[in-house]
Amino acid sequence: MAQNNYLVEMKDIYKWFSGVCALNGVDFNVGYAEIVGLLGDNGAGKSTLIKILSGYHPPDSGKIFFEGKEQHFSSPREVRSLGIETIYQEAAMVHKMSIMRNIFMGRERGKVDMGFAKYLDIEQMERESMEALEDVNLRLRSPHAIVDELSGGQRQGVAIARAMYFKSKLVILDEPTNNLSVKESEKVLNFIKELKNQGISSIFISHNLYHVYPVVDRVVILSHGEKVGDFQKEETSLEEVTELMVKP
Ligand SMILES: Nc1ncnc2c1ncn2[C@@H]1O[C@H](COP(=O)(O)OP(=O)(O)OP(=O)(O)O)[C@@H](O)[C@H]1O
Ligand SMILES: [Mg+2]
User: Fold this and answer.
1) DSSP-derived 3-state class of residue 1
2) Which of 114, 131, 198, 232 has its CA 20 to 30 A from that of 248?
3) CB-facing half-sphere around the CA of 171: CA atoms within 13 A
4) What pairs with residue 158 in β-bridges?
5) What is the distance in A from the centroid of ligand 1 to the CA of 146?
6) Residue 160 CB-density burial (10 A; 0-12 exposed, 13-18 middle, 19+ buried)
7) DSSP string, 155-187
8) Best substitution site from 13, 15, 17 to test ligand 1's pocket, by max atoms within 8 Å of Cβ?
9) Helix, strand, coil abundance in the chain, percent, nearest 5
10) Of all protein residues, whose CA lies closest to atom 8 belonging to ligand 1?
């Protein structure tokens, strides 16, 4: 049997939006415990590609393999249950809910009372939330704090803690460092490195090369819906990648 070296393989992916070709035959792979930077200018097709990989859009054509098996994703929920977690800067969490409820969203711990009513096991979730946050060295006052009160970087941290705690295999971060201070961006980069240490792969999307370059193993560059570069970091340079990103 053929040995598969990739966690994710997307082959010849096409996507049109009413006449606009957002992806024009893109091949995109992610290895095991690999950090891939997905780069490109505004409108290059980055978000569209990862929305296909997250189950939000079906591709118009092309194939997707995860852990060597061909997939036909029918929903984001299905994709999440396979271990692919997507984190958006704003939409990753419900801001009016507590950190704890966000960590356990869709995976609430419950217990059964006298064989009848099932209710949430708050204590269990409190304990586990604190564990999950400690795992990423995130010190927050209480798991009951409302997500709205956290900084952008802390929010990313909670989302990453959730991905780690539930043993995701792939974490996709779409522009996670946008609107973050330098210090907070650094923290997010450290979280991404920590994912790798735990054997978790990640895709770090940005149109800011300088945000992704320090942590990635490989860079993939999209331009106008096509892949124009795919390099191991040591095979390329900041200059070469910049040039490919800005080419008209
Ligand atoms: N839901 C949609 N409906 C119509 N057109 C869309 C839709 N989503 C994306 N597009 C178009 O597809 C192209 C690629 O968009 P996409 O959002 O993937 O770019 P991006 O690389 O993520 O850009 P940015 O850096 O600005 O986030 C653009 O021309 C965009 O207008
Ligand atoms: Mg985008």
Assistant:
1) coil
2) 232
3) 32
4) none
5) 31
6) buried
7) HHHHHHHHHHHTT-SEEEEESTTTT--HHHHHH
8) 17
9) 35, 30, 35
10) 48
pLDDT in tens, 5-36: 899 999 999 999 998 999 999 999 999 999 99
Single-letter amino acid, residue 168? S
Strands (E), the chain: 6-17, 20-31, 35-39, 61-66, 69-71, 84-88, 110-112, 118-120, 170-174, 201-206, 218-223, 226-232
Give exposure, 112-145, as e/b (b: 16+ Cβ within 10 Å): eeeeeeeeebeeebbebbbebbeebebebeebee
CATH code reported for the domain at 6-94+167-246: 3.40.50.300
Instruction: Give the Å distance between the CA of 86 and the centre of ligand 2.
Output: 13
The C-alpha R_g of the chain, in whole angstroms, comes to 19
Torsion 227-234-68-156 (CA) sign = negative
- Average predicted confidence (pLDDT) for the chain: 87
Residues 6+ apart with CB under 8 A from 30: 6, 7, 8, 36, 170, 201, 203
Task: Provide the whole-model pTM.
Answer: 0.85
Closest CA to 246 of 211, 222, 226, 225: 222
How close is the Cα of 43 to the center of ligand 2, in Å?
7
Residue with tokens 């070469």: 240
